Amino acid sequence: MIPFSKVADVFAEIEERSGRIEMTGILAELFKKAGGNEIGKLVYFVQGIVAPPYEGIELGMGEKFAMEAIASSSGHTRAEVEKNYRQSGDLGLTAEHYGGKKRQQALSASEMNADYIYAALIKIAKTSGTGSSELKKKYLTELLNNATPHEARFIVRFVLGRLRLGVGDPTILDALSVAKKGDKSWREPLERAYAICSDMGYVAQTFYENEKAIAHFTVQPFKPLMPALAERLANPAEIIDKLGKCAVEEKYDGFRLQCHKKGERVELYSRKLERMTHMFPDLVEAIRELKPKELIFEAEALAYNTKESRYYPFQQTMHRRRKHGIEAASKELPLNLFCFDMLYIDGKDMTERPYGERRKALEKLFPSGILKLSEMSLVDDPKTLKKIFDSALKRGLEGIMAKDLGAPYAAGKRKFAWIKLKKSYGKSVDTIDGVVAGYYLGKGTRAEFKFGGLLLAVYNPDRGKFETIAKIGSGFSEDEMVGLEKTLEKIKRETAPERLDYRVEPDFWVELKYVIEVAFDDITLSPTHTCGLHEGKGYALRFPRLMRLRDDKGVNEVTTTREVIEMYEEMHKS
Ligand code: AMP
Asked: What is the pTM of this model?
């Protein structure tokens, strides 16, 4: 069993390095020491999680309780701890500081191994209900009593949900391959396995126990795949140039669901791979009745107005993603599912099959009651594509999705297998999805709401960094401002998010958590923002306004810097 102090030392070492090659080497050394029953947990540690997101086991203890635990384990007062935190800006460092200054050593101080820490973290995560905060605090205090200062740093960051070692998933996959095979030759099959089950701990454990199972890894019900993402092109001609003859589907403006069925059990996963089954009893019922015993398919859910025979707008549909009043909501806003991809059917993994074949499998099953089939036409010229696009817009849809007829399902990847063409692209109003990085206090009349605007960032996957692109000061109603202030207050942080590059500072930084859709009139170059920064200037949105919260989207799925640059070029070409 690996002592947790060893893991903490490795984490501390990783934090001081920034090169991927170095990090891979250090991690591989740690992984080499792990047995098949340990490696999965170690991988979760490095990812800063205790289980894949769809298990719904989340840490994220409040700062207040963590401070109290640090205080009681070290024999200092809560006020002292808080003061130190204000200076350090990182409760992990504060815990480390007090870990070395315990007024009283724990009587039973003994070495904790990685397994023990994992079990304790799971216990903390799973404690819920009334009085749970006090209990969580008690468990954390016990852990800190036995921890070395290094251990304390990482345990506290972990329970706050802020481990962030800066190690990306690709580095972990490389390290696994190096640990077991001495080189990176297994990176690709490992990456594919991860993309089609979204559980790196499970992939690591499988690799250690039976590497052949990784080479022949297939999708499985109840292990959701990372969703395929769409590229974006400016007009029908570019799409036909890229794909030739292709399938053109309507792009429905609802929320994406990955539907899994095995026997009587049905589970529904959001685009961020959270399990949402309990929210949609109407859909679960319809899916359970489908003939195949085992099934995984993808669909877009839309609320349907039966009286007026039309679909509700996105905002209404999103009322169905709720925790309470589910029965009433399902009567008031019945959903239809537009099924657009078939990933697995009765033991057969379809993800490697071309689109055409997957579509046929889909057409055999749907429509079936409220489970509809996405509208699709085969198109090989820009004119026809434009006609379909215009007609989709006229009917209030968002646009179209063009799909490469021969392409497999690109789990977790943004590829030209799917290309979206959206409303008003290249015209005077356009939108992007960005993540909120901070917020401003109000001035003048807005001051009474304590809210003055948002700092927005997009993602640059080439650098693994978020880059700022706008300060948004309009588009909010008074109610929304109050709501936003309350929501953001909960995720406030003392320092800028580690993965953010910035040149302007908001009044408050926040965790990179909320994705919003923002409309704007133009893109300009400005010295204040870091998006695509070159020669001292970055891309910036002109007249940005908040359109809506996109809580169906994960932060890594926001608009990319490259997409922004393409939009800029498209808008400014003469
Ligand atoms: P976007 O959210 O703009 O990046 O567009 C991609 C999203 O469009 C997907 O994640 C789906 O939720 C949604 N969508 C709507 N209709 C379709 C369709 N026919 N095929 C694929 N995705 C679709």
From this structure: 0.82
